[in-house]
Amino acid sequence: MPDLTDFSITPQGSSSVTVPRATIAGKFVDSQTGILRADFTGANAIQFPSVLATLSVAQRKDIIDLIATLIINQKAGFA
I need a surface site. Which of 4, 6, 23, 50 has the fewest CB within 10 A? Predict the structure, then answer.
C-alpha cells in the first residue's frame, strides 16, 4: 500500500449532524488466564456517539485520527 504523506487534521467548530447510534459491546478476557479484565456488555455496553462526550480531548483526538486515516484510505480505494 502506498504511504500517506502530508496528512493533517484541522480542528473545526462543533457541528450538528445526524449520526447513526450504535451499542458497542464486548469483553476483554486474558487469553492466558481466562480472567475477565473488562466487561462492556449489558448495562456496561458503550453507547455511540454519546460516549464521545465522556472522553477527554486527547482521547477524542485519537479517535478522530483513526477515523480520518480510515476515511482517507477508503476514499483512495486502499481499504
Answer: 6
> What residue has cell string 488466564?
33
- In the structure grid, which three cell numbers stand for residue 27, read together? 469483553
Whether residue 79 contacts residue 73, with contact meaning beta carbons closer than 8 Å, is answered with yes
pTM of the entire structure?
A: 0.76
pLDDT, tens only, 2-27: 898 999 999 898 888 899 999 999 99
Residue-by-residue DSSP string for the chain: -PPP-S---------------EEE-EEEE-TTT--EEEEESGGGPEEETGGGGGS-HHHHHHHHHHHHHHHHHHHTT--
> Which of 59, 52, 58, 64 is CA-nearest to residue 24?
52
Q: Take residue 9 and report the three cell numbers written for it.
A: 487534521
